[in-house]
Write a structure and sequence with these properties.
Layout lengths: L1 E6 L10 H10 L4 E4 L6 H12 L5 E2 L2 E6 L2 E6 L11 H10 L3 E4 L13 H4 L5 E6 L5 H13 L4 E4 L11 E5 L5 H10 L2 E5 L4 H14 L6
Parallel strand pairs: 1-2, 2-3, 6-7, 7-8
Antiparallel strand pairs: 1-9, 4-5, 5-6, 9-10
This protein binds zinc ion (2 copies).
One zinc ion (ZN) binds next to loops.
Length: 220
């Protein structure tokens, strides 16, 4: 399955509604999506309901991007919120207890709350986002991949999309997935492929400027 595993809706700091994200993802040929809003599973729940009600041809993998003391953690497969502000170890433990999979988001991207000491954290998490399409410097992605391989951790990609236009820049191929359970297994056991295109700077600036001038974006 062609999966977009990192997208924000207007439930957190994204520009677009869940409905617009889902519609655009289907148009782009994305087969599975996770709406990973900051510290709220609300966008995912909304997406699951929408897809079920309207019988839309896309799989929704519930997800959230949790702010931990050590940086951002993507959690997939949970349907209840987990407190932000804990250490990554405890957060990952909670995710697992709730049947989810934890993936460290955009490591080394310091200004975006990426984990910086990945080799300390890596034991507690199950996979690494080795391609984040928002990266200004590809070096962070390269180093994330190096660490993932060194510690033999599964790899995923994410667009970190904050608008519909950014969807599909960081794609994860889930080789055996046909439902949520099998998608989570693919991430957990590394049956994944990563395809990435950096989001064009013009698009990226549009969202960054909105963050700066809009005054509506909280600190995550
Ligand atoms: Zn993040
Ligand atoms: Zn994000």
């Amino acid at each position: 399955m062609i999966a977009e595993l990192h997208a924000h809706s207007n439930n957190s700091d994204g520009r677009d509604s869940v409905k617009n994200l889902i519609t655009s993802a289907i148009e782009k040929g994305i087969e599975a999506i996770s709406i990973t809003d900051h510290n709220t599973i609300g966008g995912s729940l909304e997406a699951m309901e929408l897809v079920e009600d309207e019988h839309l041809p896309i799989l929704v993998i519930p997800g959230v991007e949790i702010s931990t003391r050590d940086g951002h953690l993507l959690a997939y497969g949970i349907t209840d919120d987990i407190d932000s502000g804990m250490g990554m170890e405890n957060t990952a433990r909670e995710v697992r207890k709730n049947g989810g999979v934890s993936v460290v988001a955009h490591p080394f991207q310091i200004h975006k709350s990426g984990v910086t000491s990945l080799s300390r954290i890596i034991r507690f998490i199950e996979a690494v986002e080795v391609f984040n399409a928002k990266f200004y410097i590809g070096l962070c992605n390269k180093f994330s991949r190096y660490i993932a391989r060194k510690f033999n951790k599964p790899e995923i990609a994410g667009s970190d999309a904050h608008t519909v236009d950014a969807l599909g820049h960081g794609i994860t191929l889930l080789y055996n997935a046909n439902d949520v359970e099998s998608a989570l297994k693919d991430i957990r056991y590394g049956f994944t492929g990563v395809i990435g295109y950096r989001i064009p700077i013009s698009l990226q600036l549009k969202t960054s400027m909105r963050g700066i001038w809009g005054g509506v974006v909280g600190r995550y």
